[in-house]
Each structure stands twice: as structure tokens, then as C-alpha cells.
Amino acid sequence: MQATRLTLICHARTVAWKLARFALDEPVEMDWQALRLSRCKQFKGTPRLVCGPELRTRQTAELFGSAPQIVDALKDCDFGRWAGVRISELQTTHAEELQHWLADPASAPHGGESLLQLEERLGAWLTTLQSTPGHIVAITHPFVLRAALTHVLQSASSSLIDVEPLATVELRFHGRWRLRLPGTDFEEPL
Questions:
Q1: Residue 28 region by backbone torsions, left for phi larger than 0, else alpha for psi between -120 and 50, else beta
Q2: Distance between CA 82 and CA 80 in Å, rounded?
Q3: Which CATH number fits domain 4-180: 1.10.10.10, 3.40.980.10, 3.40.50.1240, 1.10.3720.10?
Q4: What is the pLDDT of residues 13-32, one digit of tens each?
Q5: Pick from 89, 111, 113, 157: most CB atoms within 10 A?
Q6: Every domain of the chain and the residues it spans
Q7: Dist CA 11 CA 164 (whole Å)
Q8: How do strand 134-140 and strand 48-51 relate by DSSP bridges?
């Protein structure tokens, strides 16, 4: 039985990321067109390339290959009224709601999707991949990566996981999901 290999990659940095605000559907900061296909040789073989529907994930996916498949399960968390709002502003104007949201994954004081709903959505997608052998590279969002880790590690504290721009998380399924943190091969100087 061949294993399923899922490499999750966080989209490149956006203005919202730099300003610490909940994202809208916005482009990446980098000149992604000049870097188009610059990372397509990063993986052996030809993995299946998928991404969330947002502009920032589609642009980042173009670094790894052309014509990525859009997967709705990889879309960012719906932050409702908080979309586009700086976190520092929420700390001032809606501190209790923000704290409640951070402490309770089932809460959604912003009127959008709870972190628990996000994890359930992503968990359902991961379940469909269990019978899909081969390598899948998925470009998505920090909250989606956290949800994947929370689902796989069965932990409720996804707010303790920091995901940096272009971060990579790899999951493999061979009977059960396992987190794999790939290292970097390098040759020592003689």
C-alpha cells in the first residue's frame, strides 16, 4: 500500500500579515510573477498541486507549478466581522470577545467560522486523502495549517502554533496520519 504524502505550505506574506490584521482576499507582497515556477523543482516527481481559492494562495501556488487545483477545504477561516481588522484594534475594542475566541475553539464571536468548524472542515478533507496515494502539495493559510496540526495531533491549543510565511508542514498517511518535519540536507565543507 502506497502512502499519502501531504505537504502543506503557507502562502507568501501579504500586507495584512505585515500589519497583523485578519486577511481579506488580497495579493501577496512579493513579485510572484517574476518568481513564477521558481520552486517547481523543490519536490521529486510531479506532485499534485492544490490551493485554497483566495488570490494569495493561488499566487503562491504559481511558485510551485502551473494550474493548481482549487480546493475549497483549504480556504482561510471565515473571520466574519473581523476580516480586515487589526488584532491590536480588537484588543482595544473587543478584548473580551478576542480572549473568548482564543480560549474556546468552538466560539465565533466575529460571526464567522469557529476554529473548531475549521478543524472539522479540514479533518473531513484529510479523511478523503487517506485513500489517495501519492504526493500532494497544498498551498493554504496559517489557520488552516494550525487546524491540520490540531486535527492530526488531537490538540485543542492551535493558538500556540506560529506559522511563518512560506512555512512547510508535511503530513503522511500510512494507516494513520503522522506529522513529518523535513530537515535540510547539506554537505559539510571538507
A1: beta
A2: 5
A3: 3.40.50.1240
A4: 999 989 999 999 999 998 88
A5: 113
A6: 4-180
A7: 9
A8: parallel
